[in-house]
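Session log. Operator J.P. requested a structure for one protein chain; no other inputs attached. Running the standard single-chain path with token output.
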Amino acid sequence: MYLVEVVLPLPLHQTFSYLSDRFILPGVRCIVPFRNSRLIGIVLNCELAEENLIKNSPFTYKEVEEVIDKEPIVPPKMFPFFEWVANYYLCALGLVYKIALPSGIFSLPKKRIFLISQGKEALKKGDLPEVFSLIKTKGYEFKSFLRKTKLSSKELQKWKKQGLIEIQYYFPEVKIPTEVFIKLKPSLSEEVIEKNEILRYINRLKEVPEKILKNLFSSKEVNKLIKKGFLERVEYLKMRKIPMFMSVPEDYRLTSLQREVFFKIKERLDKGGFYPILLFGVTGSGKSLIYLEAIKEVLNQGKKVLVLVPEIVLTTYMEMLLLKHFKTDIAVLHSGLSAGERFREWQRIVKGEVKIVVGARSAIFAPIEGLGLIVVDEEHDPSYKEENLSCKYNARDLALVRGSLENIPVILGSATPSIKTFYKAVEGKYDLLVLKERPYTQLPEVRLIKNPGFKLITSSLKKAIDEELAKGKSVFLYLNRRGYAPLVRCEDCHHLWGCPNCGIPLTYHKEEDSLLCHYCGFELTKTLVCPVCKGTNLKFYRAGTERVEEELRKIFPEVEIIRLDRDSINTERKFLKIMEKIYQPIPKIIVGTQMGVHGHNFPEVSLVGVLRAEEGLFIPSYKAAERSFHLLTQAAGRAGRKTERGKVFFQTSLEEHYVIKYALTQDYESFYKEEIALRKAFLFPPFVRLAVIRVEGIKEEIVKQESIKAKEFLEKIIEDEGLEGIWVIGPSPCPFRKLKGFYRWHILIKSESYKKINQVLRSFLGKFRVKGLKITYDIDPEDLL
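Structure written below.
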């Protein structure tokens, strides 16, 4: 008999052992009995066990019921990585597997019955019931067969053991979604293009999504041009829920500086071994082309590449570049895929059918064998941190861990690196490669507009918008706040509308005529009457993108105004309508939140206006300045092209603030010097490691009392275990004191050693018990809200 170690997708810090009469490959799935149910687990180990050891064991072993896969679904080489994640983030190993693998992997799959050659002979001789003649070459669905024939599962298992039938698990074939684009045939002459409006339009944008093109022009005319051979259809894997097209180079030549940087990366690739590289390249410096060259180099060595991209809605320039150059060799893993699509991609990766895997944070767990390079694009992006699941991992950090375990280089790329990453590069722990040239875009003309009265559109910005629209260009206005008004006040008694579940102000959405909480979804939709004085004299304070849109329609009544935020594209129909407007060859004004500033360019945008540059600076988080700088710099990078210089206008009442001052000039190094000095003075990362424990409950007084007890418990652990250089701060109410009906208090733990934090938290979580409250913890938190 064999002793089989199995990990089950349960919140338990242990694995389980079962017996099997045959060897089972590690990495495959099996069905095992667990208490009163049957579960799917992953086989971690299988060893021959002596009969005496099994008989004399204090445990009674159950047997593995069935093996699902013929080949491993998780390469055994990945096991140490999953174990590291479980140990560092103090998460049950089974939950790490559950989070890492596609959701359908732990669901009981469907089965089919097949009649094998011995069974066919037995059927002819009458040794098998006549009903088995229903089974044709493609087999018969298991449950349907039982229903039709009235046979039992036990009887079928008997014939299976006799070698007459075979029962196989199967998974429905799923097609990965694609997006079709239309482009000009390369052989088309300028003379032909100029004679046709559709051809002229496509020529300007290079490629256009077919859905959009057929909404802008007659489908019949488009199809006629395809038949004539003037146009061709190109299919790309759908990288995101929302495919945003941008022109990317098919042919390019690296500049001398880009070649110099690439050769330094090539040296690392040729030498082999783990080494982190920070590629710090300003917007428009060509970081993506260097990634591309590095990827080609690794593929030439016969190895594979993992590319991580932020978890955002719109397709980025980097993804379009990869799709253009490596169409058939790519697998994608992102939140836009259904469970079946994600599992299909996982299978393609396991089988070695692809050379490049591109995806958001969960792609860090992709089962790639023969990995030669990991690229983390926009490494500063906070979406690499998982905030909602029990294992709150950071994919950027795990990329470095996986690179170390696989002994391969890791490239972290950004125009505005995270403070932590840049600090490590400055300290010499990472290679620092810098690209300061902008060979593909000119540095935009940047102007600061003093706006002490918080006017939405100042006269200076209006004048600049008028000038660009008159040239036939488009404008992008950035405000990182959706809705119509974030504050609603009764002018009679000064009551502020707040969420009863979260205690934070409700945002007014004029389109739905409702007050909405952006955290728990609480909504007031009836006619608004003050609950205190019953008055109806309401006033809306501050502005969101919805109000900006309304104001712009008044100022520019003849111009197409497009709002791009989560509310405006929450359905497929709304999205298609907005994309259709964006691709129209007319001057337009796009109003957007941070969704519009991440790594992609809108057609013909020559002016970017940041309506409130100080937005986000005063969020109670030690990373508020860093995030504001990232977003402002990215927003400024949306303006301009190679042939013409763009313009960027910052409206602000805080022109002296260091974040705004350095974002204006895109001077990251000066921003870093000021920010790192503050981090050092107040002892925040990267000078210490950080963990947070949150205590949540319905009654705040109980939450407070238990939080105080939790702190005392932590301090006792530190004292009992003789630990030094570890500090417990708090407890105190979280900045968002109440969320989704629960009061929240938190305790911070700081130390220069993550091992000490890990040791204290492990003891605390194993021993501290409290009833009726929710206790959560986060290691290396992205924010403390």
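Operator note: Residues 700-720 form the longest helix (21 residues).
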